[in-house]
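FAQ: What does the model actually see?

It sees only this:
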Amino acid sequence: MSHKKAVEALNRTLQYLRSNTCVINNVMGGMVVLLAGDFRQTSPVIQKGTPADEIKACLKSSILWNKVTKFSSTTNMRVHLYNDINARNYADTLLKIADGRLETDAEGCVKLTRDFCNLVQNHSELIASVYSDLTNNMQEDKLLCEKAILAPKNESVNKINSDILSEVAGEITEYLSVDTEQSTSYPVELWW
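And it is asked to produce this:
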């Protein structure tokens, strides 16, 4: 999910910091940097961007990508260590979806089955499935911390959050953050 410019900035910083011992053109200042991730997951989020903007922001689009040595894990350790058949089936289905090998309908949508996931028809059913008996379990921190609903669009997140909050009794407190620079009356020192 990281923007390619973050890794490129790290590259320039390491080159700068190690300029006294390495040639300035060495990638990452001549240091070995380990990057780990799954490139089949979420692309960088670009506000008001198009899918093309997200692809351009991906690390694979960086000038550094051809200098990366790629390794792929081939063993699902959860399945291997615990012999978890359900985890194996789930992982295999995810790979089939990613590889485009799973059956689709006439519109090109993947057909998910109940043995792969719990299918729901609407937000209310989803909330009830994930947060069963929310009203009575609201004070159970451990229970709430173990669950989450992920959604691909902010409008879905906002709707689900509103639906959940409407079920919660009590006073609502809103905490706002500041996302602009604040001027200060004292000097700020930056150390590099």
